[in-house]
Amino acid sequence: MTIYPVGTILKNLTDVVIFDKITMPKETETIMNKKLKIEVVHGSGNVFRYTGYPNPDVEQAKAILSAEIIKSLDSQKLSVRKAQALTKVQAADFSRIRNADLGRFTIDRLIKILNKLDPDADINMEVRYSKKRKRAPSALNA
C-alpha cells in the first residue's frame, strides 16, 4: 500500500480508507504516475443544483435550517424526547431532521421548529442574481 498526503487527486479507487492520509492499493499507483488535466469550475454553493433535485434552492434552505436545528439541539444537550417536551414537536420529527429525512418538512415548518427551540434565533435571507442574468425590476423599487 502507498500513502498519499491529503489533497492528492485520486481516480478510480477501490478499497480506500481515508484518515489524515489516504491509503490505497499498490495497483492504483500506476494511475497516479500519469499527469491529469483538471478543469476547476466555480460552483454556486448549492450542491442540490448539480445533483438533479427538482427544487434545489428549497432543498438547500431546508438543509441549512435543519443544520441549525441540530446545532440548537446539540448546544442545549437535548435528546429528541426532551426536545419534544420543550417544543411540543413530535420526537419522530426531530429524529427525521437529525437523519436529514426532510421530505415531510416545509421551510416554514422548519423555521417554526427552530424558533421553538431557540426563540432568539435570527433568520436572514438573501436573494442574489447571477452576473449573466439581468435583474427584473423589483416591485419595491417601482
Quickly describe the structure.
The protein is mainly alpha-helical and 142 residues long. The chain is built from five helices and three strands, in the order βββααααα.
Q: Describe it for me?
A:
By secondary structure, the protein is mainly alpha-helical. Helix content is 36%, strand content 7%. It is built from five helices and three strands. It has helices at 29-32, 56-75, 80-87, 91-98, 107-117, and strands at residues 2-5, 17-18, 21-24. A three-stranded antiparallel beta sheet has the order 1-3-2, with no helix packed on it. A hairpin with a 2-residue loop joins strand 2 and strand 3. The longest helix is centred in the middle third of the chain and has 20 residues, at 56-75. The relative contact order is 0.09. Mean pLDDT is 77; it is low at 11-22.
Note poorly predicted spans.
11-22
Structural class by helix and strand composition = mainly alpha
Into which percentage range does the β-strand content fall? 5-15%
Strand order of the largest sheet: 1-3-2
Provide mean pLDDT, rounded: 77
Alpha carbon gap, first and last residue: 66 Å
Order of helices and strands: EEEHHHHH
Total strands: 3
Note the main sheet: 3 strands, antiparallel
Shape: extended
DSSP helical segment count: 5
Helix content: 25-40%
Rg computed from alpha carbons, rounded to a whole number of angstroms:
22 Å
Topology at a glance:
Elements: E1 2-5, E2 17-18, E3 21-24, H1 29-32, H2 56-75, H3 80-87, H4 91-98, H5 107-117
Helix pairs in contact: 2-5, 3-4
